[in-house]
Design a protein that fits this description.
Elements lengths: L2 H9 L1 H17 L3 H12 L6 H20 L1 H8 L8 H20 L3
Length: about 110
Amino acid sequence: NNPLQALTLLNDVMFTDLARHAGRSVAVDADSEMTRATLLFRRVLVRPPEESELHSIIPFARSLRESFSADTVRARELTNTNESVISDRDAVEQAVWIGTARALVVGSGS
């Protein structure tokens, strides 16, 4: 992707919804970062991740977790939830994997 295509994908409603669904499902369906990352690759890119990709995506997810933990309002905006639906902790975890899914969707065309 060129930068304009990447920006378009990041803001496209269909791709945002795809990332939201994929991220939520791996946050709920798996209990470890490695399993979540592997599931996310399979659901978004329809293939297993290479070892080098896991070594990149897991630190990326950890950096998102740190960022969303410091700003739970932003996490809730991305997950499109409020306090009555899920806890801050769960909203952060879902936001982490939604953000990671968005990165995979945008990066998959390059």
